[in-house]
Write a structure and sequence with these properties.
Number of domains: 2
Order of helices and strands: EEEHEHEHEEEHHHHHHHEHEHHE
Shape: globular
Distance between the termini: 19 Å
CATH topology of the largest domain: Nucleotidyltransferase, domain 5
Strand content: 15-25%
Number of helices: 13
Structural class: alpha/beta
Strand order of the largest sheet: 3-2-1-4-5-11
CATH superfamily of the largest domain: ATPase, nucleotide binding domain
Helix content: 40-55%
Radius of gyration: 21 Å
Number of strands: 11
Length: 342
């Protein structure tokens, strides 16, 4: 009998879903859903959001009359954290127990960065997208640097790239200079014409403190990184500065948690996120990490595992669910996955 595995990679702004049946004509199906289990999602909306994420899977299931087979699901969710772990468990049971004709046998969930770390069995994981997070693992202990939202951390994240670029645009506007970043700002935020009042209105709109603030500002980051790749000096200075900030965070936690001997022997670090998919940002980041970790004798032994999204690592964890998951339950409490069996 075939077994269906479902991986759900839910970041700050969207969700990627992969459904896989090994050795079956059903093969692999992928979906993108605009809803996400982000860190700003109110807990009262978790059940409805999970059901929205599962809606295209349910539709495919019934349209194709998929047979009754065991189903195992794993979520890598940006909104999963130690304080929400128990609530996540209850929510998964409530939202999914009747789904797919009651064929779901187990559901697991953890933070999206934790999923990268555990799913790839790496020494560390770095995410840099709308926000950022850095985790390293020593045996069963997982240690974190950053990842506590933009006020205190989110080192080198899209939010900060976007915010510093918006401020540069404001300076350019005040100086009446026509710049690449000014033009990119107009394109990203849909400003028609070139009236100063339109820019100022957009600046004020971006400053509204609501659940969309972080994502709206981070939306500018992709255009800034693109401008940096094409040689714009102002964009390059912003991107390099934020890449260095993230590299500082990585170097701090690596030096604190690993011995020089472990570092020389080699570490595998996974990197993921929209910023790290940009060649200019990634090159600056990796170069700064190497420089900060190099001893007086030789470079640190870092092997980079680069992935565009976390779906493969989440699928690896989904495929663990039919087996013994004791080792996952031994992970330090703050990053331990939640697993619900039906």
């Amino acid at each position: 009998m075939s077994t269906v595995f479902i991986a759900v990679d839910s970041g700050g702004t969207r969700t990627n879903v992969e459904v896989r049946v090994p050795g079956d004509d059903f093969g692999v199906r992928r979906f993108e859903v605009p809803a996400s289990l982000s860190g700003v999602l109110p807990q009262s909306e978790y059940v409805a959001t999970i059901r929205q994420i599962f809606a295209p899977i349910e539709s495919y299931w019934h349209e194709h009359e998929v047979a009754d087979v065991p189903v195992y699901v794993f979520f890598g969710a940006a909104g999963f954290a130690s304080p929400t772990r128990e609530f996540f468990s209850e929510t998964l049971r409530e939202a999914l127990s009747p789904s797919l004709n009651g064929n779901i046998k187990a559901v697991g969930a953890c933070n999206d960065t934790t999923a990268l770390l555990l799913g790839y069995e790496a020494d560390g994981a770095i995410v840099a997208g709308t926000g950022s997070n850095v985790l390293v693992r020593t045996d069963t202990q997982v240690h974190q640097a950053g990842g506590h939202d933009w006020v205190a951390t989110d080192y080198g994240a899209g939010f900060w790239v976007g915010l510093h670029a918006v401020r540069q645009v404001a300076r350019d506007l005040e100086a009446a200079e026509s710049t690449v970043l000014l033009n990119r700002f107009r394109e990203v935020y849909g400003i028609f014409g070139n009236q100063e009042g339109e820019y100022i209105a957009r600046f004020r709109a971006l400053a509204v403190s609501d659940s969309y603030l972080k994502a709206d500002i981070a939306r500018f980051a992709a255009a800034v990184c693109s401008a940096a790749e094409l040689g714009d000096l102002a964009a390059q200075n912003i991107v390099k500065s934020e890449a260095e900030d993230l590299a500082d965070s990585v170097a701090r936690i690596v030096r604190r948690r690993f011995t020089p001997e472990q570092l020389e022997a080699g570490l595998t670090l996974v990197q993921c996120g929209s910023l790290l998919a940009n060649d200019f940002y990634r090159s600056a980041f990796e170069g700064q990490v190497r420089m900060r970790l190099a001893s007086g004798r030789e470079e640190a032994g870092i092997t980079w595992l680069r992935t565009k999204n976390g779906i493969e690592s989440v699928m690896n964890l989904a495929q663990r669910l039919p087996t013994d998951t004791t080792d996952l339950m031994q992970i330090s409490t703050g990053h331990r996955p939640a697993i619900v069996r039906f």
